[in-house]
Give the backbone structure.
Amino acid sequence: MPEATVIGTKTLVRIMLAIQAVENGRYNPEMLAGMSSANGEMGQLAIMLDRMARSVSVRDNQLLLLRRIIPIGVALSAEKDFNRLLETLVVEAQFVTNADAGTLYLLEDDELKFVIIRNTSLNLKMGGTSQTPISFSPIKLHHADGSANRSNIASYSALTGEQVTIADAYTAEGFDFSGTKAVDQTTKYRSKSFLTSPLKNSDGKVIGILQLINAKHPETGEVIPFLEDDALDALVLLANAALDGYIREASLRQEIAQLKIEIDGKKRENQVREITETAYFRELKQKATDLRNRQG
């Protein structure tokens, strides 16, 4: 068979596989890499197919937002159980990114406190509705000397308000993953790809950190880097609103409760004063004093 015919057949096979991938929602631009620059009908066909596939991918992402993310946002906003709210956020973020593990921190004073930890491979569930307490110490945003803790990826994200992605924690530069490696050694796990995203309130202030670990290829299960994901970005925005709303509502409830205590206290003081200032009470008090004096 002539070489040109063999090349043409291989090219056609690649195009057919790309078409099947588009139909299954699994298209990757790498499938047609190098073909768009080819001359002739095959090159033009590859260009047209790639454009169409990318358009379909955008549409699929939009459908995912409508079918999955928006209902999640509604559910988050309606959730009155704070632990379940936090847990749902991590679970859904894992689903959207196909992440094996997820951790949620809340910022309290100058510390990131662990509130939810989930790991599918290790069948690990801590915090939230699991009733399993988290023993890990909070991550401090600043060291004892006042300097910023930028070596930890979670505290760095909280300090800067930036989302950070790491392809491989074991080879990444600029961050200290010694704690992660120590936990991995104990659990026989391998933490590789990371996505760390700040959660912010309506004022733009960081109130927590969502960290996802080990994105997995949907077909092979291989751990891959986290990719840019509009669905996750939308979920984070909805989570921001839900968390901010819940925290504000809880703060308001606490203020109202405190105000009620103060009002009740003031009311009791006024009632006591009204009683003690009556002529009858003063007369009764004087009689008690006279009686003690005679007994003395």
Notes: The two ends are 129 Å apart (CA to CA). Confidence is low (pLDDT under 50) at residues 1-7.
